[in-house]
Structure formats: structure tokens, C-alpha cells
Amino acid sequence: MGKGRSLELYFIDGKPDGMLTAEVFNWTGHVLKTPRTRIVDALKRPEAKYTGVYILLGDIDGQPTAYIGEAEELSTRLRGHVAQKDWWEEAVLVTSSADNLHKAHVKYLESRLVEMALATKHTPLENGNQPTRSSLSESGIANMEAFLETLMMVLPAIQVGLFENKVRPKKQPIPDIGSATYPTFELKTSRHGIKAVAELRGDEMVVLSGSVARKNWVGDTRAKTHYFILHAKLVKSGVLVQNDTHSVFSEDYAFSSPSAAGAVVNGRSTSGPREWKLKGTNKTYAEWEAEQLEKDQA
């Protein structure tokens, strides 16, 4: 079992979609997330005057986009982005609670964050180039890597997911057998030639490489929250490789739920608990899940 951590969120406006701060016990970092509509008030806060890194989030021509930068005084840099960049909708300011990050620290953090975002292929960056890393001592690098480790726990918790890498190491070239270690499920639609295999690894539904999915998204595309955005990202990043008739998973890829995995495989909204079936049986994921709950109560 992993080591637990305690995250403290403070909703400044008393609303989940307003300004918030995030801190972790015994961590020197401080995170402020703000919608653009509250940027004037956000930049009046003390931490906005600190040295730190920042992330801008929004979309350009319907494509989710991010920008990562650093500044010795965040408020000054963010005011410039208000005037010069009209696409972003949210800003995340990362500082230390005692303002003890200096220029070399934040240059290193900026470079690493860009590197990590590019590696995940989750959200395109507006950054033109990969920033160079600053020169830090061995201990300084170790400190910044420890800082980043906790930051990578905080950001997904406040719905900033561009650093989450959902690609998993390949276990097998084709999803023929599955694993004896994890519960294995199949999703088949014979008339469309769909055949996917997934393993439930902890809290992730990992669709295995070689799984055959529908070539294109055929479901609703009107709402930004629909899984068609995720489908498009996976095609663009090469996780889903399209051939003449289908899309094939080139990597093992982790989804947050059976329904998310099923939607990408089927190319439409999907009830994952009903459509995934325990490999080699006709038992749905929902039925298997109910059995696990009953066993737990026995």
C-alpha cells in the first residue's frame, strides 16, 4: 500500500469552480488555481508576487492547449499574458509558501514540467521550445525533484491532468491471454470487428496493446466533456493507430473507468459495467463487481 498524504484545499470563493489553493502537510509548495474571470483578484494575493512557475489552460480552435512558464514575480508575467494571450481560461500558480524559490529553481521546474507534459502527449503546449534547465547543485536538483513529486500528486487532484501519463509498459504484443495477476475483461462487437482486452489494475482499467477499436468516433460530439476529445487525443498521440478499417492500441493505456475505456473502444458513449465481460465468460463487469462485494461481506 502506498504512503498516504493529506491534501488541504481551500475554496477562496466558496465555490468549486472559483479560486482555490492547495497545500500538502510538510510540503513547502503552494498552488493557486484561478479562472481567468477572477485573475484580477488572484493577482492581488501575496503569493502572486512570489517567484514561481505557472500553467495556462484553455483551448485553441477547439483543441485543449496549455502554456508553461516561470517568473521572478508571477503577477507581472501573468498581466502580460492577459493582454497578449486570449485563449486561456484558467491559470495555475505554483510557488513556495515562504517564497524561497529563486530563479534557478523555477527555471529548472519550468524545463522539467515542459518535458513531462510533452512526454505524456496529453495536451498540446503553446510553448515554442523546450526551455533549458538551469544549473543547480546535486542537492538542489534532488530538492526540486522532490518538490515535483508532490506537485504531481496535487495537480490531478485539482483537475489539472496534462502531466498524467496513462501509457503503461507493454505486457504482451497482442491481447490474447491477459494476465493471471489482474482480472481480465473483453469487449467485443462482432458486426463492427471490435475486440478489446483490458485488465483491472488497482483503480485503472488498462486496455492492452493490440486491442482493436472502432476507427472513428461515431457518437455525440457536442459536449466538451464527452469522451470523443479523449478519443481524438489518443489518435493524435499515436496510442490509437488507424488503419483502413479500425483503430488499434499501440500501447497499454490506462483509463479511469470501464465506461471511459469502453467509450474509446466503441467510438461512442458506453456503459462499461454492462459491456465489458470477464474474459472467457458471459459475466459482465457489473456482475463480477457485485460478486466481489458479496465476497467482501462474507
Helix-strand pattern: EEEHEEHEHHEEEEEHEEEHHEH
Number of helices: 8
The SS-based structural class is: alpha+beta
- Counting structural domains, the number is 2
Strand content: 25-35%
Helix content: 25-40%
* Termini gap: 23 Å
Shape: elongated
Roughly how many Å is the radius of gyration? 21 Å
Averaged pLDDT: 88
Major sheet size, sense and barrel closure: 6 strands, antiparallel
Q: Outline the low-pLDDT stretches.
A: 172-179
Number of strands: 15
Strand order of the largest sheet: 1-2-3-6-4-5
Describe this structure in words.
The radius of gyration is 21 Å and the shape is elongated. The chain is of the alpha+beta class. It folds into two domains: 7-157, no CATH class; 167-297, no CATH class. The chain has helices at residues 39-42, 74-84, 103-120, 138-157, 228-237, 258-266, 272-275, 285-297; strands spanning 7-11, 20-24, 29-35, 52-60, 63-71, 88-96, 167-168, 184-189, 194-201, 204-207, 212-214, 240-242, 246-249, 252-255, 277-278. Helix 3 (103-120) crosses helix 4.
